[in-house]
Write the structure tokens for this entry.
Amino acid sequence: MNDPKIVPQHVAIIMDGNGRWAKSRGLPRIVGHREGIASIEKVMSSAGSLGVKILTLYTFSTENWKRPKAEVDALFTLMEEYIDKKADKLKRDNVRLSVIGRIGGLPERIQEKLSRLIAETSGNSGLVLNLALNYGGRTEIVDACRAVLRDVASGAVRPDEINEERFSEYLYTKGLPDPDLMIRTSGEMRISNFLLWQLSYAEFYITQTLWPDFDGAEFEKAVKEYQDRIRRYGG
């Protein structure tokens, strides 16, 4: 690290390439997804040791429902396994779990397990693991607009009180700072409907590395490049 004091407070990651990783090895896509979970563990460890405060992972998008049902079902099974197996470790490691997205659209069993683990880790003061589940950036903005309109109609807020700061309070990420750094694996050059509002001034880091091959060392490379940049915020 160039300067340990210049560490992104909030890192968002588009974890891309699980399917391609598996295909290149002649393996089922679900094997790639399982390996991708192992990468999450490595990145969380690295992020915590570097002093990153929030890690937002694009885990399941609103568009992912278009995938074959067997793959979607397998993804939720893996998610359930992760929650069951890692709950105690998250608590021991002082990690606080957070979730953003239309959580009510997830399978009920997943909702229940997530709600329980969110409550059980709510007092933790270490890394915030923020999972974007059934998440879409456009959907988030639409939901925020609907909430604003409801409050205006009820008289809870006046239209002239809505500015960027106030609008941010209606987003799923209320209470979280915007990401400083956005990482995308697999080399794709797009943000795929991820945090459209929040990524306005984030630094982007694109790597050809597929997500199952992305480990702590790769994460440190991304942070080092972030440290080498000068953030101007349009100034």
Notes: The longest strand covers residues 54-61. The mean pLDDT is 95. The two ends are 26 Å apart (CA to CA). The chain has one domain: 10-137+178-228.
